[in-house]
Amino acid sequence: MRFLIVSENFTGLQPWLYHDQEPRGMPAVYNLFKYLGSSSEHSFDAVIFNKKVNRVIHLPNGSTIHLYKLWCPIHYLWKFLSFVKAYSLVRNKLKSKDYDLIYTMSFYNLLGSIVGRQTDIFTLSRTYGNQMYASVENRQYWKIYTRYIFVALAFRYPADLTIVTKDGTQSLKLAAFFNPRHKVYSLYNGIDAQMKKDLLAIPEVEILKSSSRLRMVCIARLDKKKRQDLAIGMMEQLVHKLGMENVQLDLIGEGSQKGRLSTLIKRKKLEDYVRIMPAVPHRKIPATISQYDICLFCYDKGVMGNILWECMLGGRLILVRASGDASIFNNENAIKVEDSPRFEEEASAAVASLVGKNVRQTCKNSRKLADKLILDWEKRFELELDIIAKERQKTANV
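Below the sequence we write its predicted structure tokens.
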């Protein structure tokens, strides 16, 4: 099959897209490009609008990623302009080349829905998780039909096939809210086969010794949705309320909230206990997480991203805030803390209660679960292609 892909300019991919450096996130998209770009059966042309560069990336089988520079200082106006430009570009490409499928991502999914209705080409919309369902639950319709209007319309008037990431953000419920008759596939992400092997080779955490420094980590973008502030609040409880001074928390990542988090650390007098550290290339994740005992996931509405699976496969003790769908977790495979106003107190009490205890079985259970759920990327994409083939055949028979 020949794909025409319209992708967002995901932040985690920008080092690779702009400078041929290791990506710092979005392994699902990076590995899709690499998989299709080296396939003997499939190829693609991808379109990505951005604010910095015009560039074409060539992949081994002739597939291309076209970066188009579009400048506008107003974010939402830029998104609207990029949508219009992308629509025009897709229509022109369809005139000059034969494609079997239009594959759109996130914000551009509505584009696929529109073009699919105007032509007879099969369309697939791919959603990688979002925070929109919280607005549905809270009946914040003003936000749905302003900030999330393009996403809402894409779910209301869907492409031929919709695939969402099973990450806990409840995208299936979101899709059903807008169009309950449209079937949606929900798939876990995959993982690089070598990385999975490296992670499984790391010994599980065993006894959380009181005599040793308890090392904890959050690896995520520094933004409001990742809730590093809750991890800092938990540390305040451990250090200043429970008297545990032999603890360390590292916040690894980059983003718009760095200044606010730095101020919060100083205000809570935690400079000796909490550090903000630069993001690491994805290939260094095994070596990075092996240095820690506990990995914290305090996100709003969904924690099941790649870094969670990697920490589980790496045999770390997982502390998860039960926000969104966290049903795969229980007290046998994680420290599961309910999402409540007392999260910081309850999380710190749970951590303190485990000091001096052997947590290896919990880590083994977590590792076993991730090993069962998460396929290597090649098998994961084969599964997705099987779904595409099946749904294309259904459409052709209509």
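The two ends are 20 Å apart (CA to CA).
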